[in-house]
Structure formats: C-alpha cells, structure tokens
C-alpha cells in the first residue's frame, strides 16, 4: 500500500474517517500490561498552514484531470473542495476546462461566491451548485458536477437508477432528479444564481448525489477522493443500466447497497490508479 503523503488536516486520503483512532484503540487493548502502564505518545495533528493548503490544492488539480480522463466531465463540469480552515469558504478552479487546470487557476470563494482575495478572473457561472450545497450540508467536503453523457441520459428517461454492483452501492434506493423547469420555467438549464443553487440543494437533500434533467448530475463526499470516486461509479452504473435496456436487471437490495457502500469509502486504490494515469500523460 502506498504511503499517504497528504498533510492537509481533515482532508487526507481517508477524509474524516477515524482510522488512526481505531488503530490506536486496537494497540491499547492488545498491548501488554507493561506497555499499557506507560503513556502512549500521540502526535498532535498537523496545523493548517502553507503545506496543508498546497497539498489540498494539488489534490484538487489532480481531481480535475482525473474527471476528464474518466469521462466524467468534458470541457465543462467542475469539482470543488471545502476549505478545512474556514468551512464557509471553498476552493474551485476559475472558468477553465477541467483538464487545463493548474494550481494557479484555483480560487477561493465564500458561500456568496465572492472571491476571498479579490480575484477578478472569470468564474464558473454554476459555482452556485457548490456554494448552496456547502451552505446546507456541513457534512459535505467536496462536490463534483458531472456532464457524463450516460448520467445526462439517465436524468431524462424517467427510470430509477439503482445500484447494479457494489461499487455503486452509494446510489442506495435511487437518487433524486432535479428538474429545473418545474421551479423556474424555461431556462438555459444552468444553475447560475443562488436561487437555483438552493433549489438543487433542496432536491439533493441528504443524498450522496442527484441527477439533473437535461444537464448532468452531482456527487458529494467527505473528501475530494470520495466525491470523485462516486462520480466515476455513477457514470459506470448509468452505463450498465442503459446497456441492459429491455432486460430485467437484478439490482442490489437496499441492505446489499448499504454494505457495499460501507466497504467503498474514499476509493483510495482507484484514486492512486487514476492519479498515476493522468500524471503519466503530463
């Protein structure tokens, strides 16, 4: 297993999972009395600082490239991450095709989508997708807006997308579909203001993702790896559903989906594989 070099607090390769706490607990219970009699040194968590931010933004840039490489986005679509030092801010690229994003293209926005440092570069018109979800979902640390064609199609055919295999377990009993026309009438389909972002966040509710009729979809997660992994497997699960059209699909039972999801937190092996693939092309 590769060593995790991510230093950003709360946003490491295992997100907000308490793996280190579990390991420490196991060590305490399994140790001898002699060892237990001695104080166990516990390192302080690394403070937020330049290296923390640098590592986080490097992962965000990598996420943009992975999403394009995996067919989750094209020239459009985007990914963001909440600022661990200020939960009311998030990082996202400026207006740019995901595959072209570099660290210098990342901007920091508040939940009103105002740049934190006065950055005047053009921003994504759909940044409100991110701000309004972060506003009402404190558990969400990263968001992907996907334009995968199969996800777009699933949002238009009035069929419930269910998990076909364990990697899609997060889909559970189905994802909601946001239909912008029902609330806002005729639009250009974009979530380009706070009102539309709020409506999308309400449709998402407490779910891990949603479809957007005629547009694409979103996935959320407790880290960049989590939201990206879900977006890739949402696309793959949609492909499987559409390929099986006209055939009876034996989808996962709700409990199977729950157990499958429990075993797929963070998608670390996938992340390392996808990251290596995009780095090899640079």
Can you give a write-up of this model?
The protein has 282 residues and is of the alpha+beta class. It is built from 10 helices and 7 strands. It has helices at residues 19-30, 33-36, 50-69, 128-136, 149-154, 180-184, 194-204, 224-243, 254-262, 268-280; strands at 78-82, 89-93, 106-110, 142-146, 177-178, 209-212, 216-221. The chain has a 7-stranded mixed sheet, sandwiched between helices. Helix 3 packs parallel to helix 8, helix 3 (50-69) packs across helix 10 and helix 4 (128-136) packs across helix 7.
Q: How many helices in DSSP terms?
A: 10
Can you count the beta strands?
A: 7
CATH topology: L-fuculose-1-phosphate Aldolase
Rounded to an integer in angstroms, the radius of gyration calculated over CA atoms is 20 Å
The structural class is alpha+beta
- Second-tier CATH architecture: 3-Layer(aba) Sandwich
* Mean pLDDT figure: 86
Sketch the topology as an H/E string, one letter per element.
Answer: HHHEEEHEHEHHEEHHH
Indicate the percent of residues in helices.
Answer: 25-40%
**Corresponding CATH superfamily:** Class II aldolase/adducin N-terminal domain
